[in-house]
Fold these 3 entries.
Entry 1:
Amino acid sequence: MLLKPFTSLTSLTVVLPQENIDTDQIIPARFLTTTSKKGLGDAAFYDWRYNNEGRLRNDSPLDGFDRKSHQILVAGSNFGCGSSREHAPWALLGFGFQAVISSDIADIFKSNALKNGLLPVAIDAKAHRELLASPGAEVTIDLETQTVSFGDGWNCVFEVEAFARRCLLDGVDPMGYLLDRIPEIRRFEERAH
Amino acid sequence: MTSAQSLFDKLWQSHVVVEETAEAPAVLFIDLHLIHEVTSPQAFTVLKERRLRVRRPDLTLATLDHSTPTLPPDAKGKLPYATKDAERQVNALIENSRKHEIQLFDLDDPRRGIVHVIGPELGATQPGKTIVCGDSHTSTHGAFGALAFGIGTTEVGHVLATQCVLQRKPKSMRINFDGRLAAGVTAKDMALAMIAEIGADGGQGSAIEFAGAAVGDLSMEGRMTLCNMSIEAGARFGMVAPDDKTFAWLEGREMAPQGDDWKRALENWKSLPTDADAAFDREITIDASAISPMITYGVSPDAAAPVDGAQPETTTVSAREAAEYMNFDEGALFSTNKVDRVFIGSCTNSRLSDLRAAAEIMRGRRVRDGVTALVVPGSEAVRRAAEEENLHNVFKAAGAEWRLPGCSMCIAMNGDAGKPGELVVSTSNRNFVGRQGKGVRTVLASPATAAASAIVGYIADPRKYLVEKGARADVA
């Protein structure tokens, strides 16, 4: 199936400096009773953005800006820890984010994000500190060259798993690749099971 | 170059369908796919869109646990679902299981329960298997010497369609628990001590093998508790080498091999433990004899300390925010914090030995006025076994509620939740902000510590409530 290819993204950042932002913060469990991937954008960081009466707070760093121009989330280390809920990347994408930058991104979240076209970008601690200190900066993430850049010549590189990168650049999901492996899978089943 | 292999190496190598290359991850065959109502519906939608069938319904098991009420049905037989969506989600799995001929442990099935409780209980969880589930606590099954890990919903779709996942081999890590646990110290305390030691991201990118005398001493239920919490240290995989305890636990269970198959399986399973000189990317040793009953005092599971300690000084902005959220005063003994609610349950601590440990402390005592205590067995089988031992009456006599099996207040999406500001001592696995209800403050602890806290009404050290015999309820 075709997804929207991801080659590069230039956008303003939203900064959440907290460490260990877990998937319960990204989307509280009470929103997980859905059977669809859609419509989760407004549930993103719901308890950070709404008060106990369900009214939008005025002091959240996640509101009060144009989401179309703020597509990069810069967050504290160990972002996305906790549950395996893929609702977390679905909610972030629904909210308008296309990429998350941190010094350290949790394994299952990273895997889920890559499969949905939300680019997880883990950068070194020094570069991370600089981006955390620059909310609203215009940042460019280039997946082709695996670099993050902003301002005057500031840039750093990031690692991304080669297969996931190829899928994102080409805008394909990995199911097709796995389905093409069915003959090998069948041979394995005959041999081992 | 040595050919010595770890348990993890053996599990991995025996399931590679296509080897990993620079360009692509390995294609890994999955022996058991467990599914539940929350993370499966969108995967079935993908199957429908692509006109695919479930490739191996015979290797797939479904249960209902996350969204299901723990209160009984009303006079008309209607279950008190938290929302219409919750009921719709449960019905979606019932329908998808029927359509794809997947064995489902339905609401009225005596084998239903939390996915990570029933897999082992049925004997479906076995040494040497690869096991996945759309749930991060799938590492629980690693207690049997299985390669078990949590996956996302897209991957649930991959496994449904192909019985495989794409996965790069993680780094290997061994955590040795040397020495013996002291009385009143449990597997949960080992897990919290380990997470405090290596950090909430200390196991990221790694498969952890738990080893050492104290791990060998643990019962299978204790090993499950330990492996369950691997993900709270960032590791998707946690495992323990199978031994005679593992085999004895499995023998005769409904889905375990029988007769000659059992003998053959046993031979294979005995070859799985890590070879003597196998190498690990990282190895750490923890002195098990120095571990105390542990609690968490912050909003990340690595903020854990001995229950008889005091709130530490905060050194980072995140730690300060966490202490403010918890409303714990710096330097104050943990035992000065008043408890509103106690939850005993979850895939971490809802098995029979957990309930026995809690009942041992509650027997003949009363839950402190103003404290609500909820005891939720992990499965229908645990519920029956506990009731046969009359544990439910011990809890009820103490003033605790005895509920139907499910995930309940661990994830608080079925209507079981705390109220804003409440302090909950919980035997579950996550103390995240709002995890047990908006504004709820969670303290993670063992069943014994949770039960003692229910009695005292403040965070309490269970050791003073333990009778000498049977003080180590999760040690066989």
Entry 2:
Amino acid sequence: MSETVLSVEHLSVAFFTERGVLPTVDDVSFTLQKSKTIGIVGESGCGKSMTVNGILQMVPAPGRVTGGSVKLGGEELVGMPEKKLAGKRGSEIALIFQEPMTSLNPLMTCGRQISETILAHKRISRAEADKRALHLIEQVGIPMPEKVFHSIPGELSGGMRQRIVIAMALCNNPAVLICDEPTTALDVTVQAQILRLINDIKRDFGSGVIFITHDMGVIRQMADDVMVMYAGQVVEYVHVDELFRNPLHPYTQGLIRCIPGMNDSDGELYIIEGSVPMRNALPKGCLFAPRCPYATERCRLERPGLLGTPAHRVRCFRNEDGKGVEKT
Amino acid sequence: MKQYLIKRVLLAAGILFAISIITFFVLNIIPGDPVALMLGDNADPQAIETVRHNLGMDKPLVQQYLEWITGFMTGNMGESYFQHKPVSSMLVTSFGYTARLAAVSYAVALALGLSIGIIAALNRGNAIDHTLMTLAVAGISAPSFWVAIVLQIFIGLRFKAIPISGLGKPAAYLLPCLSLGMRYAASIARITRTSMLEVMNQDFIRTARAKGLSRRRTVMVHMFRNALIPIITVVGTDLTTLFAGSMLTESVFNIPGMGALLVDNITKRDIPVVQGGVMVVAMLCVLIYLAVDLLYAAVDPNIRLGGDR
């Protein structure tokens, strides 16, 4: 029952600018099984969304995939001709965006936007596609589907629009569903509904889900495995339960301490000092060293690889022996 | 929508009424007496008085206006002082030329401008884009009468089949329509490119791509339609200037259109002709702007809904 739908190996993305080559995604590897969710967490600018663009072969210029491999159902996407890629996108691999307010065409009815996605991949009549679109609108829990079918996005609320985006992503039963911060722009009650919907989809459609967020609370609800990213690198990769029970990377520990209510001490919100380094000014050693409370001389000079056990990988010298480091 | 339409039509009527008053009174108070021009410098004052009386020019201005406007509404625009022909028939002839010239030129301009703009936008920053946009700037900067003369010299005089004056044969449209159309093509190309570039960076274009739509469909259905509003605005303004007659191009190619008619009769102080001409052009402008507003609503349902965008 563990069927691999997507395997990403050593994926790297870089931007070629006047200021030089900026590595944006550095050597990211993971495999995604059917009906499983892999969560990607990290602050803004950690390369989460660029990883997604790299998987879809949609890195905007002047960036491009510089290495690695992305296999979707055994087929290599890196270097695949654009026409063939278009056949995969929206059918075998689908994307739900962060901004439901702007990710739909403002001039086209919601129903048409869904049915054109179906028509792009299946040879069926327009009427059939419309029928299927209507059914999908109903499936994602929209009341009065007929009315919404003929509505333009401007007539709908953010939550409704996000449901339309989800219906659009689902319309060809994708093997892989990528959710790029799907609930960030929504308010909390709507957020909970959308998250439940995504989990239902995973169960009913059997898609593998890549779930990107900067919200550790959401990750805990959604993910099976979690990949913590920092400055374009994976710094920790482990099952979600283990991640919260025994986070090994200082960055992950910091992220968990940042969750309101997870605070052990005096109720004051914890913050990780500093910010993600600019890609044109990366530290020589460990990328997190400048913000790390445990950084040593070695951390500042040498860059750690992904260490630890296969079940719990971590990019930190403190874990070189493969055993957990005691929490402080 | 219905309410909006009624409001627009009433507004249009008001604007036309205002224009009729302004043109009438301005034309009647500018210096230069048509009768004196008609009879020459040494005319007998008595004779001038008689002619003025015959033409109804000795009545109070307000009465003259009322007579003219009621006539206008029933289709009687009066008679030319000099040619003694009904103004309406003169306008029909001249406007026929202008309209044919405008329609063909603008069709050329749209075909060229839209495709150049789209191609340039899709090739942003590379040699194709730079070449096309340099051409567009040249097209906007070159005065169309100059382009007209250049075309006459280099094409018209070389190929005898292509006439350099009038609009008699179909081949005669080539040069005037090219010289007029190029200028408009250039401005359409520029606005199309700018507008397309703005749309290209929007999230829903990324969505279209992530949905696996073909490039053609992404460009034509998702980008172009969203880029249309500013283009429609430009098209509307262009058409109003075109229908008012392109005086210079018309005179270079010896085409007796609206521009030529108006300029001729302004210098002659043939007031009924000028008044009629101005009113017809004004009505057309108002109609075009009304059509533009309706087109906005047709393209963008958000406007129809009265929502913000």
Entry 3:
Amino acid sequence: MKNNVIFFLGLFTALLISWAGIVLGSNAQLGKLAPYYDDNDSTSYPQWLPGVAAQGQLVYRDLGCASCHTQQVRRPGFGSDQARGWGERQSVARDYIYQPAPQLGSYRIGPDLTNLGDRKPSAPDVDDLLHLLYVGAPGMPSYRFLFHTRQLGVGAQASDHALSLKGALSPPAGTEVVPSRRALELASYLVTLKTTYDYPEAVPLAAAPKEGEK
Amino acid sequence: MKAEYSPIDRASSVPLILLLRSGVAWLALSGVLGLVAAAQLISPHFLDSWSFTTYGRVTALAETSFVYGWLANAGVALALWSLGRLSGEPLRGQGWALGGWLFWNLGVLAALVGIVHGDSTGFTLLGLPRYVHLVLLFSYAALAVPGILAWSGRQRKISYASQWYAVAALFLFPWILSVVHVTLFAWPARGVLQPIIAGWYAQCAWTLWIAPLVLSVAYFVVPKETGKVLPSYEFASLGFWTLIFVGGLTGGRHLIGGPVPAWIPALAVVSCALLLFHTFIVFLNLRGAVFARGVASRLISIGLAAYILGALVDAVTSFHSVAEHTQFTYFDTLQQQLALYAGASTVLFGGIYFALPRITGNLWTSAGLVRAHVGATVVGLLLLLISLGGAYYVQSQGLLDAKVSFATITAQTRPWLLGAFYAQAILLVGNIALLVNLLASACWITDFSAPATFNPAPALETSAT
């Protein structure tokens, strides 16, 4: 390696190839992916996140929720994703086109959240999730810094979304625990998570029958 | 053995010592943060009352401080040092390195403050908030100036493997960072293109930046310590170009089964296998390190063994059927620790033990602290990898069986994670020993070169045996 120019050109070419291959290649394939218009429903899918939910995705990102939760369901037969009720079909690229910051995640220290808004038999609502965020769960920290306690006027009605807490967690008499704006955004985001529409490319793949089984 | 000794080192000592000191200080900080994160995996309510100590942010802080604080500072210092040595002249353009050092570390500090405030981008190895990218880009370019000058103005026409790897790392990182800044932040790509690009960046940061920095240290120190020409050295350039051309294509293995085009993980399988050719050449060239004596070569041979093992593990887990078990589990943590800690950091430790006495002209202040650090590193790493392996096995079995709840998996992985916590604590103790020893040894510079006699400075290597 005596020639500087050729050496640097080589380095640069190598980087260019991997960039062109992976970044430009996938951009050429997915960059113009359009929503899918369903004639029967007269609607196109996926739908935009409501503004508050789009904000919530940024809260999800800045708290690093993706350190423990994924948002990608793998195809039937690959892992236990379907058996755990995380979604009947695999996630596809079209699911994410309107998301400001897709959070695929890479650890499942907690469950996958792709279809949290469509859990069977009953999906959690905003108040359930606020309660979970305040209290935590086995293996999950609490997020009490997203809430504040405030005075309740004499005889006043409790605020919307004031937490109903029992036992040691219940706030002193005359006060209530209310979520901050960020907590509400996060919970509103989580309840909108569902990928229930079957795109042509996402028709559930049946797991291939094992050899000898019919 | 006798340490060879050169006035070249003395003339370039200031920026190198600053880089090494700040690198090891970031390492200790990331050790503290890593310990907090490990404690939170055991008891999730530990320090969960503040937003800045929530698990997601602590892990991002630990990773950023480890990669951009420790690996970058120490790796660049050693790369500059070996480039200067091999060019046969004192480093030119040291002012650039000083400025680069200052702004790089301010940039890393700003990144950590940003993550505390919730500005992390949420991508693996790229938690850096977008506003520090430009600072890091330009300060890294400034840091690289003395290295590039030493390479292009070298006195000998021929060049060595250590130089190729060092120059590649100095030259490529600004390009990688600027490309990812443009495509992810300035004009962000849509949807799953974001994780694809972030995965490409994470892989390039490893194979085109950190791994070359580390290999440049190994290729410099091993022949010096063994006192022999590297065996099969004629293949070294093939190994180098394989890493540079193929390395950037292996990132897709993290996206197996994900909502991305299937050719991305498929390409990763092929390139991971091709990359084993590079790993094999590294093994052929540097296998002599195992037989050399001294702290530096001992650490470097451990690091290289982990590097080779890591490449094999990457290749195996890039297969669909294996990934079904390893994906989304603590195995990812294990792979990362195997590459970045057991592989990269251990080689850099060896490089520091080799280089610092030559840069300062002083022996290491305390041989006891060297022994403590090496011992803690070996014990800590073994315990860490075994614990994470156990945690992975239990977690993977649980995840694959839909009847096992997450509460059960948490309870079952807990004893293993406790082991990982102790391992982090041991590693932290070792790194504090290194920090103290480094600060004590590098607070003055002895200029042996003043009398024009060759002073062999009998034993610059500390022997921990």
